[in-house]
Known about the structure:
This protein is of the alpha/beta class and 236 residues long. The protein has eight helices and eleven strands. α1 links the parallel β1 and β2. The two termini are 22 Å apart. The site of the ligand O=c1ccn([C@@H]2O[C@H](COP(=O)(O)O)[C@@H](O)[C@H]2O)c(=O)[nH]1 has 22 residues, from α2, α3 and α5.
Amino acid sequence: MPYQRVLLKLSGEALGDPQTGHGLDTDAVKRVAAQVAHVASLGVQVALVCGGGNILRGAQFSELGTNRASADYMGMLGTVINGVALSEAIEAAGAPTRLMTALEIREVAEPFVRRRALRHLERGRVVILGGGTGNPFFTTDTAAALRASELSCEVLLKATKVDGVYTADPKLDPSAERLPRLTYMQVLERGLKVMDGTAITLCMERGLRILVFDLFREGNIERAIRGENLGTLIQA
Ligand SMILES: Nc1ncnc2c1ncn2[C@@H]1O[C@H](COP(=O)(O)OP(=O)(O)OP(=O)(O)O)[C@@H](O)[C@H]1O
Ligand SMILES: O=c1ccn([C@@H]2O[C@H](COP(=O)(O)O)[C@@H](O)[C@H]2O)c(=O)[nH]1
């Protein structure tokens, strides 16, 4: 196995209704959880960050009049809801988990403490990191880059709704072409929006490679961890 410890970033929308991406769809959560539990059973240490796009995105919600920072805290709480759902579903699929949050909600989850998270990983628990970075004006992509750096993960696996990075957003431009390999600088200079610039910059500074791939294709998380050729690899 090329990777011993990975940071898996899941799109929140992938847990939602298959048509709209909203809310939590039990079957979607179960399908994702089964893939995660399977790779954990192979002995790979998995730290997991889940987005919150199925519940609320702060930037969009604030356009309706709510203060942006408050809207972002709502978004972060959404990621905790996803974290609880994933924790239950991954355990039902056979892998032990711990949910740790950047915002303290002690009745629900452990607060994130780096050394405790490392210990959980070493003991084979899937560590689900909720609440993003704990700060407004950031995203869960940046949280994934931050936690991957702190926890010495070897790769950031961005499992999402598209099968890689395209020349333009493929959901908006059907003529967009997939780019199998990119450097961090190319992503930034070409303004490719699959991840936010803060996350890319942090990965570039830490030399942390990123693989962007399609979460909906069954078995793709394992393929990514086995180092198979899929999606888009972003590195120096
Ligand atoms: N150049 C591009 N190549 C690929 N995807 C792109 C590009 N530009 C924009 N996108 C969009 O980026 C999105 C991938 O990010 P994603 O939706 O997973 O965000 P997230 O914040 O990680 O998750 P979520 O918001 O669902 O919780 C896709 O929906 C895709 O349409
Ligand atoms: O560090 C963070 C992470 C997230 N947020 C807020 O949560 C939502 C959902 O996360 P996505 O990355 O968009 O899936 C995000 O839109 C922010 O509003 C945050 O404030 N800080």
